[in-house]
UniProtKB/TrEMBL annotation:
Belongs to the phosducin family. One of its GO terms (cellular component) is cytoplasm. It comes from Naganishia liquefaciens. SUPFAM superfamilies: Thioredoxin-like. This is Phosducin domain-containing protein. GO terms for biological process: protein folding. Residues 24-33 have a biased composition (Pro residues). Residues 250-261 have a biased composition (Acidic residues). Residues 1-38, 242-301 are annotated as: Disordered.
């Protein structure tokens, strides 16, 4: 045995000395450079995500292994589904579809029952999610009601997977008081998730305010960048005043409360139908949900 053994050598003798505290513990093994590099699976996933549906179809046809063929086909179907949704939104913007009028006898079918149905076009991605439904209770002689209608006319074409419906307030609910107009009812999976009564912010309420509200309740989804750009080009020259500026997610709670006050009374729904439209506290009551969405707005022009 050498007289001056290497204390860092990986030997049983050194291990025994370390166990008795004679030698210090071995330094940790530095991580391999490969630890910081993406794995082969991650690289493959990234490459397939960025491939076109046509290219993925070619890869599936050329695959020598059935597992590879199935993988390429799954990515191709996912890409086609994304394209289908984007195309539907683009057509909706161009054709001006969106907010649709209903009568009282249609409410259950068009709102409650429709919200419980999954969207077939989404396939497995839509199973159990139901359909987002926004029901707008209005009266034409009330300025805040007309203002909210303009905002919904901007938002609704961008979200063809969400149903935007309007019904005159006293047709939906007999003797519905004018002080509750406008009202938004938000449904999904057969449940009324929330009810917003009035716009305390009045004509200062912006499309971004309403977008945040609907995102917070998961009634609409984040737009893809291409659709958002198309929308900006479509309305910027004529209706940009309705869009509103961005609110930073770093704003404190006092500022968030002031923004909440732009809305009227809000009540979070229970399982089942909309009960007591005036229940709940004053203000929007969406601070927690909205803070998670502050950086997600498509209206930061």
């Amino acid at each position: 045995m050498p007289l001056n053994p290497d204390p860092n050598a990986d030997t049983e003798f050194n291990d025994a000395l370390r166990a008795h505290g004679i030698l210090p513990p071995k330094p940790p093994t530095p991580p391999s450079p490969s630890t910081f590099l993406p794995s082969q699976a991650e690289l493959l996933h990234s490459a397939l995500e960025s491939s076109s549906a046509t290219r993925l179809g070619e890869l599936a046809e050329d695959a020598l292994d059935s597992d590879d063929e199935r993988m390429f086909e799954e990515y191709r179907m996912k890409k086609l589904q994304e394209m289908k949704r984007a195309d539907a939104a683009e057509r909706s913007v161009a054709e001006g579809r969106g907010l649709r009028q209903i009568g009282r006898d249609e409410f259950v079918r068009e709102v409650s029952e429709a919200s419980a149905k999954d969207i077939e076009a989404l396939g497995e991605d839509g199973e159990g999610r139901g359909t987002g439904v926004v029901c707008f209770l209005y009266k034409d002689s009330i300025p805040a009601s007309n203002h909210l209608r303009q905002i919904l006319n901007l938002l609704s074409p961008l979200h063809p997977l969400t149903r935007f419906l309007s019904i005159q307030g006293d047709q939906c609910i007999p003797n519905y008081p004018d002080k509750n107009i406008p009202t938004l009812l938000m449904y999904r999976n057969g449940d009324c998730l929330g009810q917003v009564v009035g716009l305390k912010g009045g004509l200062r309420t912006t499309a971004m305010d309403i977008e945040r509200l609907l995102l917070g309740y998961k009634i609409i989804e984040k737009l893809n960048p291409q659709t958002a750009r198309t929308w900006r080009r479509h309305v910027q020259s004529t209706k940009s005043g309705l869009i509103g500026g961005a609110v930073s997610s770093s704003e404190d709670d006092s500022e968030a409360s002031e923004e909440d006050a732009a809305f009227g009374t809000i009540a979070r729904g229970k399982k089942g139908d909309a009960r007591g439209l005036r229940q709940g506290g004053a203000g929007l009551g969406l601070s927690g949900a909205r803070r998670n969405q502050d950086d997600d707005s498509d209206f930061d022009l």
